[in-house]
Amino acid sequence: MLHGLLYGRPAPPRRERERIATPALVIAHTLDPLHAFADSEAVVRDLPNARLVKAHTFLEMRFAPGRLTAEVADFLEEVWAQPSERPGDRWAGA
User: What is the pTM of this model?
Assistant: First the structure.
């Protein structure tokens, strides 16, 4: 990440992000001085299987994690309920 910030692009171009089918959960808040909330929204728009959860503050997960951990648990349950798309995945259904 730091290498990308200092020497080039920190993320793949949009065309490449649109081809990433892996489910992704993005947790962001509006007061982050390094990662603009609009960037999080853009990533979620670009990734076909992404979901955005807006945290109230960067400290929410540390001091009041209930709401966010419930979101993470729901996301994981949905992802794990989907059948594996990789042929020959020996861990599928295990």
Answer: 0.75
pLDDT in tens, 73-92: 999 999 999 887 665 554 45
> Can you tell me the distance from the alpha carbon of 28 to that of 91, in angstroms, rounded to the nearest whole number?
31
Q: Is 42 left (phi over 0), alpha (psi -120 to 50) or beta?
A: alpha
- Give the number of other CB atoms < 10 A from CB of residue 47: 19
**Range of 44's domain?**
2-81
Listed in sequence order, the residues at least 6 apart from 64 whose beta carbon sits closer than 8 Å to its beta carbon are none
Domain count, the chain: 1
Whether residue 24 contacts residue 51, with contact meaning beta carbons closer than 8 Å, is answered with yes
